[in-house]
Amino acid sequence: MPSISLDVDVNCFNSFTLCSVIFPDPYLNTDAGTMSPFEHGEVFVLDDGGEVDLDLGNYERFLDIKLTRDNNITTGKIYQSVLEKERRGDYLGKTVQVVPHITDAIQEWIERVASIPVDGKEGPADVCVIELGGTIGDIESMPFIEALGQFSYHVGPGNFCLIHVSLVPVLNVVGEQKTKPTQHSVRGLRGLGLTPNILACRSTKALEDNVKAKLSQFCHVAAENILTLYDVPNIWHIPLLLRDQKAHEAILKGLNLLGVAREPDLQEWTARTRVYDILHEPVRIAMVGKYTGLSDSYLSVLKALLHASVACRRKLVVEWVAAGDLEDVTATEAPDVYKNAWDLLKGSDGVLVPGGFGDRGVQGKILAAKYARENKVPFLGICLGMQIAVIEFARSALGLHDANSTEFDPETSHPCVIFMPEGSKTYMGGTMRLGSRRTYFKVPNCKSAKLYSNASFVDERHRHRYEVNPNMVPQFENAGLSFVGRDETGRRMEIIELPSHPYFVGTQFHPEFKSRPGKPSALFLGLIAAASGQLDAVLQNYGNESKLLPNGISNGKPSVKTYQNGNAIKSSNGSLNGVYSNGNGVHH
What we know:
By secondary structure, the chain is an alpha/beta fold. Helix content is about 35%, strand content about 20%. α11 (about 300-310) links the parallel β12 and β13 (about 315-320). The protein starts with a strand and ends in an 8-residue tail after the last strand. Residues about 1-15 and about 545-588 have low confidence and may be disordered. One of its GO terms (molecular function) is metal ion binding. It is an enzyme of class 6 (ligase). Catalyzes the ATP-dependent amination of UTP to CTP with either L-glutamine or ammonia as the source of nitrogen.
């Protein structure tokens, strides 16, 4: 089983048939589900319901594969599995220790997951990328480093290639690139039993030749295996940067795969990157959230907005609006902050209210949804964002002024959002409605169904404890709010639309988790298209292979299958500006 320990962009691995990823994270949590977004960024949700580190989302986006919860190893998972074995008596009375029991468990996990076929393909992947998070010298990562040292000896030369990522700082005063941090980290790594084959050096500018020579001499790494990862206009340049430095050849050589791998095909990626670079006409989206102080809290949402913006040939400008700043209490306590928040909201072309938990900022989100609804501003509400839109509609359109979610007011007389019956209020981790679930379109001619290539159902990922109260749905529909998507029972609301509005959509699921650079999420594409005045043309031409999209570029070849009434039909997957968009959640 060829393995790679890698901590850099992985798109260069498209020279292999298939690539899998394992991400060991040394924290003691079982998974990322209970961690604060302020501390650890967003929680990324996988098809199987795994709540994992946001780095798994990066791998899914760049490699365009679907991973499982087992692709994310944590210290908590390893210790839990070892202690379960000890309780069962599997160790036959032996003293259970970090070495060999914890390190053996880590190696067994890696070998097991690396052998699992990727995306339902036959046989294991050609290459498995293992990214060990943290910093050399961290106490919590020591068992993983020891395990990888043993693992490299176990699989032997030619089956293990270690890439060490290190910072080469530049002193601004003299502009000198300093190699000491990398020298010391490599020395520490070698002292722990691991010798890097390749150095990936992060710096503000390309490494000078004399710096490479110095690193090669002191770190015992060939100069051609020292990669420089300097600042670029956008992250999509990184695969091209790695290719130009022949990073793939260095990796292939380390794994004895030079004779079997093909050259990286980055033609489409290069074209998309060039499009990204030349965008100048802005589209402004107000992100009204609770965790606006850390952009990583909404990383997948930002990436989905970016994918859709590039597809629509618009330069994305995200206006961060802290939901609490829109509330009346802020107008009293900090009028300048209040005014600035509302100026940002009113100056935006579209409004997005992402998911979240807790009652802080809820009133501000409700006000943002009200503004977007009343002023015909394109709106997308995700998870809590959809629930917020329902609460606002109940208060404004139905006159139910105390309408609320039982999450925020358990005693409300009009609970339009309620706790799901199968949920748990005792245990927080892993007890939500998680993972891929099916949504059926009940209104075939709605905007959402059209954006999903007129599919009859879609599979998208969920993460929530509360849902729209099904007993109040008739009241909402009589007042003009349409629940166009529901689950298989018809009682769980998944997608809302306001037919009288240019684009007012809310989803209980998280469409951002399946967005890809070349395949933007359908509903994010709808938001950006509506915000940039292209929605009518997109809806009219979507799925029609014979027509051209607004910029005069063909929408691509018919290449996917969608399902209507259970029967497979052939349809075009649509494209904007030559960038494919297949809706991602459509059953193919």
